[in-house]
Amino acid sequence: MTAQPNNDFVQEVVARGGDSVTMCFQCGTCTASCPSGRQTSFRTRKLVRMAQLGLKDEVLNSQELWYCTTCYTCTERCPRNVAIVDIIIAMRNMAVAEGKMFDGHRKTAQSFVKNGHTVPISAEVKAQRKAMGLPEVPPTVLANEKAMADFDKILKATGFKKTIGE
Amino acid sequence: MAKYAFFLGCIAPLRYPGIEKSTRVVAEAMGIELVDLTDASCCPAPGVIRAFDKKTWLAAAARNLALAEKAGLDILTICNGCYGSLFDAAHELHADKNLLKEVNEILKEVGLKYSGKTNVRHFAEVLYNDVGVENIKAKITNPVGYRVATFYGCHFLKPSDIKQLDDPENPKMLDDLVEATGAVSLYRKDKMMCCGAGGGLRSQFGDSAMKFTEENLKNMVDAGSEMIVDICPFCHLQFDRAQADLKGYALPVLHLSQLYGIALGMDRKELGLDAHVTPVKL
Ligand code: SF4
Ligand code: SF4
Fold this sequence. Notes:
The structure holds two protein chains of two kinds. Helix content of chain A is 57%, strand content 0%. Chain A folds into two domains: 9-97, Alpha-helical ferredoxin (Fumarate Reductase Iron-sulfur Protein, Chain B, domain 2, Orthogonal Bundle); 103-161, no CATH class. Chain A is an all-alpha fold. Chain A has helices spanning 7-18, 29-33, 35-39, 44-52, 56-60, 73-77, 84-97, 103-115, 123-131, 145-158, 160-163. Chain B is of the alpha/beta class. Chain B is globular and about 55 Å long. In chain B, strands 2-1-3-4 form a four-stranded parallel beta sheet, sandwiched between helices. Chain B has a four-stranded parallel beta sheet with strand order 6-5-7-8, sandwiched between helices. The two termini of chain B are 33 Å apart. In chain B, helix 2 (17-29) crosses helix 14 (256-263) and helix 4 packs across helix 5. Chain B is built from 15 helices and eight strands. Chain B folds into two domains: 2-122, Glutathione S-transferase Yfyf (Class Pi), Chain A, domain 2, CATH 1.20.1050.140; 133-275, Rossmann fold. The chains are: A mainly alpha, B alpha/beta. The interface between A and B is large, with 67 and 66 residues. Bound molecules: iron/sulfur cluster (SF4) (2 copies). One iron/sulfur cluster is lined by residues 30, 33-36, 44, 68-74, 84-85 of chain A.
């Protein structure tokens, strides 16, 4: 099957904050700097090129899109000031909007929705906190129902719950 | 006394409470007053939440920023993830009035408004820039002699065009802060390499994350380090837990606040060292 370039794709990446995508001249400094590329099949330069060419389906379905740790090493070194992490974030947002997300990530997002925090509190941690003279439950949304309800309203307003299928 | 809204985040209070406790004690000793930023949520995490939906990330960050603004205080964080998210979100909102307006439409639903006044600070750079290394040295009561691998993490210094704290390729801030306790910071290969946990890698592709961590650990050991000192509970968690699965590594992992706690004579129990997965033998 030959790839079908999608000309609107670049425009959407630009609109979502990845406007520097058009500046890339494919020098490969990013790939050479990428710690993830050392361990995985992810090639930063190639991903940026795929975005430029409008290979929407290939990008949004690729596992490599999720191999970036957002360490910013590439962004610091890019001679064309391409905001590579912003481009990756824009494309991840597009994948998620199409319902494409991994379970490990969805779980983190579910905890965020439920607890206001990416991880829940445990009995063990409560005991540890108490033993060192801290309140058992930290003074965050976890300790105030009204604050938690406010947080929930924000997530409803942005449609986040729907985004992650809740 | 400089006063800040203390932003806890998730991993410190809910996985390594010793980091929270040490920060409270150390801040007071250093003349920094911390007022709890009550009702705050997750920053939200840049790795998954920003990657999932930038609008949600911005709105929830703006709620946290607005809570601090209401308290009339700047935010102090102890985590690179929180620092990265809140700093970046504030930067975007302060630069783009339309975006700020959009976000305020959402905040209106919960009776909040953000006008763009909150500065976001990291504990490490507050110690360095506001307290100063010489003043810190004068306050240390129990100097240590550890041989340390400093771990800056990624989102403390980068993106450097907006953070403007130190050279992102060859920084010295954390090394100077560590050496203020009497410890020695050892140079090593690939010192600025990412721990591997960020961007959602740990939660979905843990094996890949582990490869980053192992490479870092190898470079630390090769340089003769006997412990890791970090400034991010998420890097901290990655290094602390990874060593249980990787054979042959046993480097204790301390957050800067815990190292300072030791150098100020804090009790081992208050430092939370026994809750670490990799044993902390000092
Ligand atoms: S370093 Fe910049 S210009 Fe070079 S290939 Fe990567 S994104 Fe393109
Ligand atoms: S930010 Fe992502 S793409 Fe860039 S060097 Fe780091 S892991 Fe690689």
